[in-house]
Design brief:
CATH architecture of chain A: 3-Layer(aba) Sandwich
Largest sheet of chain A: 7 strands, parallel
Strand content of chain B: 15-25%
Number of helices of chain A: 9
CATH class of chain A: Alpha Beta
Number of domains of chain A: 1
CATH topology of the largest domain in chain B: Alpha-Beta Plaits
Structural class of chain A: alpha/beta
Oligomer: heterodimer
CATH class of the largest domain in chain B: Alpha Beta
Shape of chain B: globular
Number of domains of chain B: 2
Number of strands of chain A: 7
CATH architecture of the largest domain in chain B: 2-Layer Sandwich
Largest sheet of chain B: 8 strands, antiparallel
Radius of gyration of chain A: 18 Å
Distance between the termini of chain B: 33 Å
Order of helices and strands of chain A: EHEHEHEHHEHEHEHH
Number of strands of chain B: 21
Shape of chain A: globular
CATH topology of chain A: Rossmann fold
Chain lengths: ~250, ~450
């Protein structure tokens, strides 16, 4: 059935791939992104590919008014109806060498990746529960599974997001709302350039992640790792005894 | 966020001679503009798409290599006129997926669909229908460029034609291609009727091509480079025409644009360097020749145009040493002698080549650096065996120069600037345009410096 999905942070590499997959299945989309030009470009792309309805919203997760107003803005642009689902796909990752020197940047990481996201998820969770139907997909990260010396600023922002999504799924159990925590490992996007080796077998193409996300929506899965080996990799990393973990350089 | 620049080892698809380059991955138009605007941070720039040119066209150790393949949005698709306008990072695979269900196909295509639109324009790629339809650039209706001074401009065969044609086949040296509008070709199915025809030697091959080219839109021959004497130049021609729905087997007829998904294979490791040698390749060639008797079949576009796309990382069969591609073009008048001399040289050196392809080319286009003109072209893979390969390629270059032939920039890794100058007499015309839009030579490449398009 044709439904409308709101995508937050629509121009990120992963969001673009998810948007294209949703469009391929005929869903209409509301794209919310920081750069109007880029959001518009993606909107035209999706319409050229799939002949769906696309609307765009200006959205900057760093602006409080836009964060608290996004639900109403989405409803208005969707002819007064709540969208069927929301995909939260924005986030920032500054190199930790930078955030260690600049604590304001570190705080910005938390504000964007978690604080604004929590507000939005809370709003949509409550509204969807009231309606008795809805899909919430939050893109978190395996970096949140265990704090590591080289990446714990970003990692802790994602750990909080993961816990929030997991908790909300628990709360909304039986309400008809599906909350999905997506835990990607390495993904080859412009955001991760310089940090990851795109040729590594563990580095996913955004299209592979998108495929996994759509499968998770279809099967109403609660938590997914993508690519799947990350589930086992992170299980091992979480279970390394602390004394031994401290000796590693992760 | 501004793009991060990091060091990475890059090579062309042939894997020959990788070099360390500073690589930037812009996430947006704004990032791109910023990279170009920052003339002190990035005095030299090179745009790279999917890295499918074989040599060092998309490698530049002395500048910033910009990976443009994330900027891959379709701007518009006119389903009635078959005109599609896209950002340069859109792949040919993408265009097929979007256009084919509406009855449109690429006007011409190289042997892989894993190339970007920008790359296809910059190399002015060609395909099996060159003798009828010309090269890719002839189907471009307009280009949107970001020039070295940071300005953007639209050009077409009517508007700034000099800049337009210098950019077609211009290897990214005139500026950054942001968008291109491509005229597609109507088709009535995703399938092709293909006739296989075996030819016992070069003479028979050329005769058969002359006889058949008028009646087939697509024509290409696989040629056995290790054949000598009587068998020199023996080949299998693969001649194709569009299949109409009524040509298809009954079960495909109801969905003529649908191609069932195939499993893709992958070459998981680099083969050891000794895996390809005269013995293994000549055994392969004999096998290949035997299993392709003369017959007619109906196959989907993937099978006909992109047999190697089904095997990811196929370049690894040449091992870590890599290989070079050698594509020679001879004018009609000297073609038979030139081809014979090339094949004799290759057979004498015994340097194994699986993928040797012969094709009749049609007239060229107005582009000063475009590759093909009326004649015959022969493309070979040569494994990198070191000095012997260099010696052979020098001998081949000499033959080409003597017979009025030329090499293809998108495949070349080795030619000298003297050779290039001898093969591309309209080089000065190109350089005049380059000087007018990029006087400081900001857009460069390792190849451009090697062949003398940029002073080194």
């Amino acid at each position: 059935m044709k439904q409308t999905y709101l995508i937050l942070g629509a121009t990120s590499g992963m969001a673009k791939a998810i948007a294209r997959k949703l469009a391929e299945q005929g869903h209409d989309l509301i794209l919310a992104g920081r750069s109007e030009g880029e959001t518009g470009l993606l909107g035209a792309d999706l319409q050229a590919r799939s002949q769906i309805q696309v609307k765009t919203l200006a959205f900057d997760a760093g602006r409080r008014d836009q964060v608290s107003g996004i639900l109403e803005a989405a409803r208005t642009s969707n002819d007064g109806e709540l969208p069927e689902g929301v995909v939260l796909a924005y986030g920032v990752m500054f190199p930790q060498t930078e955030t260690e020197k600049d604590p304001d940047r570190m705080v910005e990481t938390f504000e964007i990746n978690f604080v604004s996201a929590a507000r939005i998820l809370q709003d949509f969770g409550t509204a969807f529960a009231g309606r008795g139907r809805g899909v919430i997909v939050g893109i978190s990260s395996v970096a949140g599974d265990r704090g590591r010396g080289s990446n714990y600023h970003y990692g802790s922002s994602k750990a909080a997001l993961t816990a929030f999504l997991d908790g909300m799924r628990h709360r909304l159990q039986g309400s008809g709302v599906h909350v999905c925590t997506v835990l990607p490992g390495f993904v080859d996007t412009p955001m991760t350039h310089g940090i990851l080796d795109p040729n590594s077998p563990l580095c996913a193409k955004p299209e592979q992640v998108a495929r996994d996300v759509l499968k998770a929506i279809r099967r109403r899965r609660g938590r997914i790792y993508t690519l799947w080996p990350w589930r086992w990799i992170m299980m091992i990393i979480r279970h390394i005894p602390e004394a031994m973990f401290l000796k590693t350089k992760l | 966020m501004p793009s991060v620049t990091m060091e990475k080892s890059l090579s062309g698809w042939g894997g020959y001679h990788p070099v360390k380059c500073a690589v930037a991955v812009p996430a947006s138009r704004a990032d791109l503009r910023q990279l170009v605007a920052d003339a002190s941070g990035n005095p030299h720039l090179l745009i790279r798409g999917l890295g499918r040119s074989y040599g060092d066209s998309a490698v530049e150790p002395a500048g910033t290599v910009i990976l443009q393949n994330h900027l891959d949005r379709i701007r518009s698709f006119d389903r009635t006129a078959g005109l599609i306008r896209c950002e340069a990072g859109v792949t040919l695979e993408d265009i097929i997926q979007v256009a084919l269900p509406h009855g449109w196909f690429l006007p011409t295509t190289p042997g892989t669909k894993f190339v970007t639109l920008g790359g296809a324009v910059a190399a002015d790629v060609h395909g099996k229908n060159h003798h009828i339809d010309g090269s890719f650039g002839g189907w471009i209706r307009s280009l949107n460029l970001l020039l070295a001074d940071g300005s953007e401009c639209e050009c077409s065969p009517e508007e700034r034609p000099d800049l337009f044609w210098a950019t077609i086949g211009g290897m990214g040296l005139t500026g950054m291609i942001l968008e291109a509008a491509l005229q597609l070709r109507p088709c009535s199915s995703a399938y092709f009727r293909v006739t296989y025809r075996r030819c016992r030697n070069l003479e028979a091959t050329l005769r058969a091509i002359e006889e058949t080219d008028g009646s087939y839109t697509y024509s290409v021959g696989w040629i056995d480079c290790l054949g000598r004497g009587d068998r020199l130049g023996r080949s299998i021609l693969m001649l194709g025409n569009d299949a109409r729905p009524e040509d298809l087997p009954a079960k495909l007829r109801s969905q003529p644009f649908h191609v069932p998904r195939k499993r893709r294979k992958r070459v998981p490791i680099y083969f050891p360097d000794f895996a390809l040698n005269r013995l293994t390749v000549s055994a392969f060639n004999r096998f290949y020749y035997t299993v392709h008797p003369d017959r007619e079949v109906v196959v989907d576009y993937d099978t006909y145009f992109y047999p190697l796309d089904g095997i990811h990382d196929w370049n690894r069969i040449y091992g870590r040493r890599g290989f070079v591609q050698y594509q020679a073009l001879f004018p009609l008048a000297t073609a038979e002698r030139g081809l014979r001399r090339v094949l004799e040289t290759v057979a004498r050196f015994g340097l194994a080549s699986f993928l040797a392809v012969i094709k009749r080319s049609g007239p060229g286009n107005p582009s000063p650096l475009s590759y093909l003109f009326d004649g015959y072209t022969l493309a070979l893979d040569i494994p990198n065996v070191g000095p012997r390969m260099l010696e052979m390629s020098q001998q081949l270059d000499k033959i080409l120069l003597e017979e009025g032939g030329r090499l293809y920039l998108a495949k070349d890794s080795l030619m000298s600037s003297e050779t290039f100058r001898g093969m591309y007499p309209r080089m000065e015309e190109f350089l005049a345009v380059k000087r007018s839009v990029d006087p400081e030579n900001r857009f460069t490449s390792a190849q451009a410096r090697r062949v003398g398009l940029i002073p080194s």
